[in-house]
Write a structure and sequence with these properties.
Strand order of the largest sheet: 16-15-14-5-2-1-18-17
Length: 781
């Protein structure tokens, strides 16, 4: 097929579209003129390969060799790419290398493994531990125990059928009596609850419906990437977002293979969640991350540290006994880790234990370590991994001697604690190079990433909720604020080391959109106003104080009393927290009380206008939203706009995160987006790979409330931070900002001009007279 001409390697900005049957390639094609008009350079598409029919997200891939029929197939994708190119846009695709749908009906490689067992040519595709149980692959798909549903099983056409599910039969077994037939298969049908403890295949986190793929095998890599590589070669795809690289056995090796296969033609970013001071490995052949590290710094620099601490005190007093571990972040986080590693990831720790047992049994120097001691050592070390996982290098910084000493403290008998040294050495790869040794190291790292995601993002963030805006992917709930000095240091490092990295404010995975987080973050500037608001709605009875706090803060951030959208989000929060109910062990009476409370309170009462004090916060919410948006669009990196966020966008992870794109009316955000992105396209040298970043510091009584920086001496961004505190402290007064030399025009209004240089201080009261942000471009001589 005809190849499309290449666009510049580094995008100016990307725009994420969530494809689904209701919004296929043809719908995306119709949106191209609008998106080109915003000034983005690339469309970022959610997964495009064949997926489970009806999937609204596409991460449940079923066939790597074909573009999804429900979206319009390969012809539809190529037509979209051609239309986009005609408008000056390229295509970035979300690539899912770690997992596929565990659906035998739709996943042909899995179906053939179930039919032909270990001898299938596809057996190498999946991590299946046949040393567990009777050696058969457990499929935890039954709605109840097998004896209770056996009479609903039907055999026909070489397959077992149950309630729309289909399982292939081992050749020659179709005529057997049912009990014998079931025992003769290469797999075992089991009750879905068995997955927690008995599962013997690697999955995505704790989702048994997604089976892990062994892309570290060269044949598997080639088979699962041929179509994407073809699309890259033809110029249809120019960029790749790599989903969940931490789930892979060797992320660096995978990325090296991908770079070799694509010839380095792709702008590639990885969905890597960095924790605290952790940085992206410098030897990964990528442009950077998808931007959660940028999000943490952006949200943090607009959060008041003193007010956040005061709000936490208010939270502990309000929630009282309902606060998990007394409302202290570190204790909540550690408790969640122990619960997840011992409960949700029991099957994963069992695999690690079996591997460790085999290694010890085969090595005379390691014999007589009790299985329970190895299991305890695995658990204690996993909960002490401070980041998502270790990689080829820097493992000692993750599994430190201090972590080992802490793990040993869990043993009553010091001699038994020696198992910690064995497990640590296996995880570091210093104890041997056999197949089991390599498998242990990889599986320990893979399990570590799943543990971090499930215990922090999906558990602790719902248990510890003083300031929900901080509880975001990659965030630090215990330290929600980032100083301007830290923000500038981060931007300087990104400009130097990763100028092509992604930056985001909202994604398909953020628990709350940027606008919702902006409203919540303002509460850190007025903890007592928040306490008064809670007192005003105390007449609406809640099941407990924790759900009351969380629900009302969610409702305040959302801004609109909407029971249909807030109700599911609040129910999700209590299930994820797992304190009173959960997804797998629901307390129906408690959940009914939560639903009734959501409908009567947060879903009905307009909290932002419940009092004069709350209504007065709206200008400060707007200042926060505009400030963080302009900072993201002009800081180092490639900014991404999530669909619909070029205007005010209020969304919660459920049920909003899979909603299709829709063109809406412009607002003041849209004008800001167009101006900033136009500037990026007109002056690529200021923002591109060689662009520089220079912090600008205001002088005067309100200097701390101005965040400002210059890009390559061509563009200046200046925004207001913590505007409520600024107002309470008397405004800008005589605070000034010195612009770099030259003449400058405000591109947000196209009228005002300013002169820079050390002798021409600019009053911030003048700069921010019309709006709380300013974007200045240098004028020619």
């Amino acid at each position: 097929m005809t190849s499309l001409p290449a666009l510049p390697a580094l995008p100016t900005a990307t725009y994420r579209l969530q494809l689904q049957p209701e919004f296929p390639f043809a719908a995306a094609e119709r949106a191209v003129p609008h998106l080109a008009g915003l000034g983005v350079s690339h469309l970022h598409l959610s997964p495009v390969l064949e997926a489970v029919p009806g999937s609204t997200h596409g991460y449940d891939v079923t066939d790597h060799g074909s573009v999804r029929t429900e979206l319009g197939g390969e012809a539809g994708l190529r037509t979209l790419a051609a239309t986009a190119r005609a408008h000056g846009l390229g295509i970035v695709v979300d690539l899912v290398p770690n997992h596929m749908a565990a659906s035998p009906r739709h996943n042909r490689p899995l179906r053939e493994v179930l039919r032909d067992g270990p001898d299938s040519p596809y057996a190498r595709w999946f991590d299946i531990d046949r040393s567990a149980g009777d050696g058969r692959l457990l499929l935890p798909v039954l709605p109840a125990r097998l004896p209770e549903v056996k009479d609903r099983l039907r055999v026909s056409g070489g397959a077992l059928h149950l309630d729309g599910q289909e399982f292939p039969l081992r050749p020659g077994t179709e005529g057997l009596p049912l009990d014998e037939l079931l025992d003769a298969q290469w797999y075992r049908l089991g009750w879905w609850r068995l997955a927690r403890t008995e599962l013997n295949y690697r999955r995505f986190f704790t989702i048994s419906e997604l089976i892990g793929v062994r892309v570290e095998d060269p044949e598997v890599f080639a088979a699962t990437h041929a179509k994407i590589v073809e699309l890259v070669g033809d110029g249809v795809v120019e960029g790749l977002r790599i989903d969940h690289p931490d789930g892979l056995a060797d992320p660096q090796g995978y990325l090296e293979d991908l770079a070799a296969a694509t010839g380095g033609r792709c702008w590639t970013v990885v969905e890597k969640i960095l924790t605290g001071p952790e940085t992206l490995p410098t030897d990964w052949p990528v442009a950077g991350t998808t931007g959660y590290d940028a999000l943490r710094h952006l949200d943090g620099v607009f959060t008041d540290p003193l007010g956040a601490a005061e709000l936490t005190d208010v939270y502990r007093e309000f929630v009282g006994k309902a606060a998990d571990r007394g409302g202290h972040w570190e204790a909540t986080e550690r408790r969640a880790a122990y619960e997840v590693v011992g409960h949700d990831l029991a099957a994963e720790t069992a695999v690690l234990t079996r591997l460790a047992e085999r290694i010890c049994a085969a090595d005379p120097a390691l014999r007589d370590h009790a299985p329970w001691a190895l299991r305890t050592a695995i658990r204690e070390l996993l909960v002490r991994v401070p980041v998502y996982r270790a990689y080829r290098t820097g493992d000692e910084d993750v599994l430190t001697p201090e972590a080992a000493r802490g793990a040993k403290a869990a043993f009553a008998v010091p001699e038994e604690a020696a198992a910690v040294d064995v497990v640590r050495a296996l995880a570091l790869g210093t104890l041997g190079e056999g197949p089991d040794h390599r498998a242990f190291r990889a599986r320990f790292a893979q399990t570590s990433s799943a543990l971090r995601a499930k215990s922090v993002e999906d558990t602790a963030f719902y248990r510890y909720t003083p300031l929900l805006s901080a509880n975001e992917v990659g965030g630090d709930a215990g330290r929600p604020a980032v100083s301007t000095e830290e923000f500038h240091a981060y931007c300087l490092r990104i400009a130097r080391d990763w100028p092509g990295t992604g930056t985001v404010l909202s994604t398909h995975d953020t628990k709350r959109s940027a606008d919702v987080r902006a409203a919540i973050a303002v509460l850190a500037q007025c903890p007592q106003v928040w306490a008064e608001l809670l007192a005003e709605v105390a007449g609406v009875p809640a099941p407990d104080a924790h759900v009351a706090w969380t629900a009302w803060q969610t409702a305040f951030g959302f801004g609109i009393p909407d029971a249909e959208r807030l109700g599911p989000a609040i129910l999700k929060s209590v299930r994820e927290a797992g304190l009173r109910t959960s997804w797998t062990e629901p307390d129906t009476e408690y959940e009914r009380a939560v639903a009734d409370f959501a409908a009567a309170g947060p879903g009905r009462i307009p909290l932002r206008s419940a009092s004069e004090a709350a209504f007065a916060l709206e200008p400060h919410i707007r200042a926060h939203a505009l400030g963080v948006l302009l900072a993201q669009l002009t800081m180092p990196g490639v900014p991404e706009l999530y669909q619909n966020t070029e205007r005010e966008y209020r969304a919660l992870v459920d049920p909003d995160n899979r909603a299709p794109f829709a063109v809406g009316p412009d607002d003041d955000r849209t004008a800001l987006v167009r101006a900033a992105l136009r500037l990026r396209r007109e002056r690529p040298e200021a923002f591109g790979a060689t662009g520089t970043y220079t912090p600008l510091t205001a002088e005067g009584p309100a200097a701390a409330h101005c965040l400002a920086f210059a890009r390559s001496g061509e563009v200046v961004t200046a925004v207001t931070r913590l505007s409520l505190r600024l107002s309470e402290e008397g405004g800008w007064q005589d605070t000034e900002l010195v612009l770099p030399d030259g003449r400058w025009a405000d591109v947000l209004d196209g009228v005002r001009e300013f002169t820079g240089g050390p002798a021409t201080e600019l009053k911030l009261a003048e700069l921010f007279a019309e709006r709380p942000v300013a974007l200045l471009a240098r004028l020619g001589d």
